[in-house]
Design a protein that fits this description.
By secondary structure, the protein is an all-beta fold. It has strands at about 5, 25-30, 55-60, 70-75, 85-90, 100-105, 115-120, 130, 140-150, 160-165, 170-180. It is globular, with a radius of gyration of 16 Å.
């Protein structure tokens, strides 16, 4: 597998007190539970598994609705945008018609930063359910991506992918959360 995935343990991002009332009746898409330290994996050190130089670090954040962020620095543009990405899959099976929402905050000190955000199948043919190319600036901006599942999805069959390998850049992401609501009869 040529892509590098920052496999984030999303239970690290939120505590129960951080969940707004509008989430009533919702289920965590990624198994979010208690606030803990960030966890990253799959070979981020000096280079990604596919050989693209990148580094990652955890940041403490103040004055925002989240308390931690991950900073990813890409020193060489990879062959594909998905060669450096934040990726997470669904923790529970999803029925046809299940609606969901993924939100996170993003910023970058880089000149003309770009990312692509995709919710879709986690295996070939990688069918997209929803996508957005958010505006990324030097200040924290909220990215909010609603979606509806058009087919049944087993555990791990649906993924959120934030493609960071679009350019040589530094991207910071915080407050990631994903929620689903059951299909309406």
């Amino acid at each position: 597998m040529k892509s590098l995935c920052l496999l984030l343990v999303l239970s690290a991002w939120l505590s129960a007190a951080d969940v707004p009332a509008l989430r009533a009746g919702a289920s965590p898409l990624f198994g979010i539970a208690e606030a803990k330290a960030w966890v990253t994996g799959n070979g981020f050190a000096d280079k990604t598994r596919s050989g693209h130089p990148a580094s990652v670090e955890t940041l403490s954040v103040e004055g925002q609705p989240f308390h931690a962020a991950v900073k990813v620095e890409i020193s060489t543009k990879p062959e594909n945008p998905w060669n450096v990405q934040v990726r997470r899959t669904n923790a529970a099976a999803l029925a046809v018609g299940t609606t969901g929402q993924v939100r996170f905050w993003i910023r970058s000190p880089s000149d003309k930063p770009r990312v692509y955000v995709v919710v879709g199948k986690s295996a070939a043919p990688y069918t997209k359910v929803a996508e957005v190319t958010p505006a990324v600036t030097g200040t924290w901006s909220l990215v909010d991506l609603p979606f509806t599942v058009g087919e049944e999805m087993a555990v791990g069959a649906l993924s959120l992918s934030i493609h960071l390998g679009v350019a040589t850049q530094t991207i910071e992401i915080g407050g990631l959360e994903g929620w689903t609501w059951p299909a309406k009869p």
